[in-house]
Specification:
The complex is a heterodimer. Chain A is α+β, with helices and mostly antiparallel strands. Chain A contains 6 helices and 23 strands. Chain A starts with a helix and ends with a helix. Chain B is mostly helical. Chain B contains 8 helices and no strands. The N and C termini of chain B lie far apart (about 45 Å). The chains are: A alpha+beta, B mainly alpha. The interface between A and B is large, with 49 and 63 residues.
């Protein structure tokens, strides 16, 4: 090669600048939003796992509306616009999810392998509550436990809370807990941004408009988005833009587990009420009677200040579950992925399965599970049931939820430790497999 | 005194666009920058009081781009005239880098930004940026099979 990569990078950016001209204020001014009353919005709610299985962690806001023209089929085509949450009217939904584990291209972050009924209450800016009314595994009875009926999550301005009836815990967080997920392509629940047109609802592949029929008593616009391997149909409230139904289809043979193909109504609104009357405590962050409260508000759980990249990891010692002393420092020279985990922590159970898959893919990385305030017997039982063969450590002196410790707060927590003993990545996990894979990839591992 | 939005664009559009283009590739990246700036235009009163509006808008662009189902990063550059020739393998090598390394190495050596400015824009530590630049260069050399 005749010259240095640094010089070539500079020339490549010159070419990019030439081909992609600067964005000017004049250009931005050519895209003007319509007044709010003319806007229609699409609320595409997808359940995501932000430390929970079924609690809504992802809400994608789409906007139709704008400088309307007529497409060939007579449907409105629009210009990109921004839709602020502050202009969205309150609503109440009953939603049914049904998701096949093989359908990997469903809405981002949707928990797989379950059928669930949830209610969604949106009370205005930053006020949202999701209640799980029913949740059953679809295919694998021994698979990851799903969010039990009775669990709920409430977002109330700067804070949010999750209640898990399985262990009676009520966990209060500030919203930063979820920011890491958002960085990886998850929709942030309270992010007011989404841009789009009707066509832009298809964010990959081709789109076509199909004949629609009412859903939950509402007139709809039906859009099919398709690529070579999969497709999905979106049924959108024609008046308000609320997402009312998502049908996903996987082409036969596309995935090993879907040789026969798969079609499912992944998301369907059973009833919708606009401008509903909410009970006074709907968006309250108060714990149910008898719940054990864990309040992590004020702990900057997503801040790199807890354990920023490049920081030397704190001392971590303990005993292996199957005997012998453990010292993290002894692993210097190897890349180590440490998962802080507990059998009593529902999101942790979900995360564990994904970690094992990644661990199999990455034999060059040493994976260690560190139990937090867990009974060895409980942990052993869960791990044995799932045939987990990763090293498990009972640490010295780490408290429940890690609060007040040098490692920071919250679980499940994944810390990637570089071979020189510094932090390569620090993330709260519990989402789908590709989140784990992305964390390792983004750390350059 | 708070800058006007026009002044902000004048001073920051370049690095914001380069950051998002290096993050998402040339096509999606410019769109992400445009969407971020449009958000900035509409919310300038609030953003102009922030310590780091450009970093905020970088996040806005990241979010927008991250929601697009096209995850593939592409530098679809065809222009390679004599004055601006670069190795054809550079674009695919960049596409194969982890995103933080790609952004860091492009901003440092492509856009000639200081380490401290990159750290400010990406809300990370300067040492982290330096590490990512080093690793990014090493990754490019490996992918392009060249030495130091």
């Amino acid at each position: 090669m005749s010259d240095r990569i640094e010089s070539q990078l500079a020339r490549m950016v010159e070419v990019i600048d030439r081909e992609l001209p600067p964005i000017t204020v004049d250009e931005l001014n050519t895209i003007q939003p319509l007044p709010a009353k003319n806007r229609s919005n699409v609320f595409a709610m997808v359940a995501a796992a932000a430390g929970t299985l079924l609690i809504v962690g992802g809400v994608a806001w789409f906007l139709g509306g704008g400088a309307a023209t007529e497409s060939a089929d007579g449907l409105e085509v629009t210009s990109p616009l921004e839709f602020p949450v502050s202009e969205l009217s309150p609503f109440h939904l009953e939603v049914r999810y049904q998701l096949d584990p093989a359908f990997a291209t469903g809405p981002d972050g949707v928990p797989e392998d379950l059928e669930a009924l949830v209610t969604v209450s949106y009370g205005g800016p930053d006020l949202l509550r999701v209640d799980v009314n029913r949740s059953v595994p679809l295919f694998f009875e021994t698979g990851p436990p799903h969010e039990a009926a009775g669990s709920f999550a409430v977002w109330n301005h700067d804070d949010m809370a999750q209640y898990y009836p399985a262990d009676g815990t009520f966990q209060l967080h500030d919203q930063r807990v979820f920011s890491k997920l958002d960085e990886r392509g998850f929709s942030n629940l309270l992010d007011p941004l989404m841009w789009g047109t009707w066509e832009d609802l298809c964010t990959f592949g081709e789109h076509e408009f199909l004949e629609a029929s009412p859903v939950a008593g509402r007139e709809t616009v039906r859009i099919r988005c398709a690529s070579l391997s999969n497709s999905y149909e979106l049924w959108v409230d024609a008046e308000t833009g609320l997402m009312l139904r998502i049908i996903g289809q996987d082409i036969p043979g596309n995935l090993p587990t879907s040789a026969a193909g798969f079609t499912a109504t992944e998301y369907e609104v059973l009833s919708v009420t606009y401008e509903p009357e909410f009970a006074p405590d709907t968006f309250s962050l108060s714990a149910p009677p008898g719940a054990t409260v864990f309040d992590s508000r004020g702990v900057d759980q997503s801040s790199p200040e807890i354990l920023p990249e490049g920081a030397t990891v704190p001392v971590l010692t303990g005993q292996f579950l199957d005997g012998g002393d453990f010292t993290l420092a002894d692993l210097k020279g190897s890349r180590v992925a440490v998962l802080f985990w507990a059998s009593w922590c529902d999101p942790c159970l979900n995360a564990l399965g994904e970690l094992v898959v990644v661990a199999k893919e990455r034999p060059d990385v040493t994976f260690v599970i560190v139990l937090i305030d867990d009974r060895p017997g409980d942990a052993s039982a869960v791990l044995a049931e799932r045939q987990i063969i990763l090293p498990v450590v009972i640490p010295d002196g780490l408290s429940r939820n890690l609060h007040g410790d040098q490692w920071g707060g919250g679980m499940p927590l994944l810390v990637l430790v570089e071979s020189d003993g510094t932090v390569a990545a620090y993330h709260f996990v519990g989402g789908p497999l590709d989140l784990f894979q992305a964390i390792l990839r983004d750390a350059g591992w | 005194m708070r800058p006007s939005f026009a002044e902000f664009v004048e001073n920051n559009e370049h690095e914001l666009r380069h950051a998002l283009v290096s993050h998402f590739g040339s096509d999606l990246g410019r769109d992400a920058a445009a969407e971020a700036l449009l958000y900035g235009l509409e919310h300038w009163e609030r953003l102009s009081g922030m310590k780091n509006p450009c970093g905020y808008l970088y996040r806005v662009g990241q979010r927008w781009g991250g929601r697009q189902r096209t995850r593939r990063v592409r530098f679809g550059i065809v222009d390679s005239t004599q004055d601006s020739w670069f190795e054809p393998g550079l674009a695919p090598a960049l596409e194969s880098l982890p995103v933080k390394q790609r952004v860091a190495v492009v901003l440092r050596h492509g856009s000639d930004m200081e380490y401290s400015d990159i750290a400010h824009l990406t809300n990370s530590k300067e040492a982290t940026v330096r590490k990512n630049v080093e690793r990014g260069l090493a990754g490019l050399r490996k992918a392009m099979e060249v030495g130091e």
